[in-house]
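To: structure desk
From: M.T.
Subject: fold request, one chain
Message: Could you run this one when you get a chance? Sequence is below, nothing fancy, just the single chain.
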Amino acid sequence: MLSQSPLEIPEVTTLVASYLTGGDLASCVRVSKNWRDCFLPHRWRDVTRSNKWSVDSYKHFGPSQEALHNHRHLVRKLSINGRFREDETYTHPNLRHLRIDFSRHSDVYYHNDRGAFDWDLSVKSPLLESLSLSYIEIEPRSCQGISKLPHLRSLKLWKVKIKDVFVPGFWEACKNLESLSMDNVRFEGIFVPIPTDTVFAQLRTLSMKDIRELPVSAQLAIAFHSPVLRSFEWEAISIEVRILIKHPVQEDLRPQLRSLSIPDEPLDAEWASTIKTIGDCLGNLTYLHLQSGTFGSKAFKALGSHCSSLVDLDLSYATSPAIKDVLCSCPMLEKLRVTDVSVKHIIEGGPWVCQQLRELSISFRVKESERNLQSLVFERLSTLVRLTKLDMNNVDEESSIGVLEFRSHYGLGQLASLQELRAIGFYWGDDFDKRQQLRRTEVEWMIHNWKNLKGIYGLLNDDDEVHDEYMDLLSHHGILVGEDMVLDSRLASWLGFECNKDLDPL
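Reply: Done. Structure tokens follow.
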């Protein structure tokens, strides 16, 4: 018989604490001495502190100064909302993660005396691993303190201002980082270039968005001076990218990127130019996310040999021929997100080689005269035997062209090979011409043939009563029916997919 209380087993306590809120943990601490000893470290592990100006937004002040002082050695993660004087904060010897947000002061971004950040974190939190700063002007003392943090690996900056005289110290503070994210950061004053001998030797993940008054050549220099860089998310301005070609960097400092995300390029030719510009840095590229503009045949051609290594590809605006080329040229592809594609183009060319594909987000455009081609699309889809998720909800609402119809007489039966399919999404909207017109026999076919199916999203019939009937039938067989594939974390985990935690759950 066990004489030990279950709560004395660290794994049990950690599991129980993971389901409790801060208020629940505070109540547990008051039950008994044993419970206090068990739950006190979890009560103080993650702390949020807000000043009186930000309490209206954050709903609570957080712990009192005295309580935080007494338990500061237990704090591992600290969020500070609103501005505090340095003498109002304490040394947290075991702090690992710190987030400071001065945004409740609307003018801190523009007035030095309100948003200046001049804390020496190397003294206050020497074990810090990640730091996030918002609405702050970085001062020299804080730069020096950051550069002295031996364990700091992640730095996130949003709405931060860095004066020219402090820029060299800032680059020095970034030299040992593994992850650097800068969003809406202003480099104020005379431009100070990154020293040519600076190397960000540990930097693996770099994200730069809306960087003000820092030339594109300098922004790219950060990436090119990061030899182990693997993930690069960058908001580029196309006209400056073309100028960048005139500024080559040292060959031995070029990183070998595995992940690349660039939001702002308008035309196919400019995408091609951008890809060629940084092409020498694309090693065995596995992830490529191009959020806007037109990705066409020229951009696809610029990718060249990288097609053989791509695993995750997100093309928000791609032409039908380019999508067809991707499907015929990327054998390692596991995730593909594209816009709508013409069935006439998608069935052209050689066979699809992406037999590893697990998640596909695509919408097929079918003109009235092309309905007889739908069986050929089903034939192509039937080769994707590892497919677990097929989302066809991304439909152009303004287009008068129809969508792929999942009907038996158009070849639905060919998809019996998709034995691993867990979720499928159809159009959900007001355009009746784009809704599916499934019959009960076809719904029953899906239930019988797709044994692993857990969720169907979208409208299954333009008749609401018929759709509701199908919902009841599917629910009876343990299959969820919803509007779209915006999943919360629990549902996504059940279906076996990743999800965006920033999205609202169903």
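Reply (cont.): The chain has 19 helices and 19 strands. Let me know if you need anything else for the meeting.
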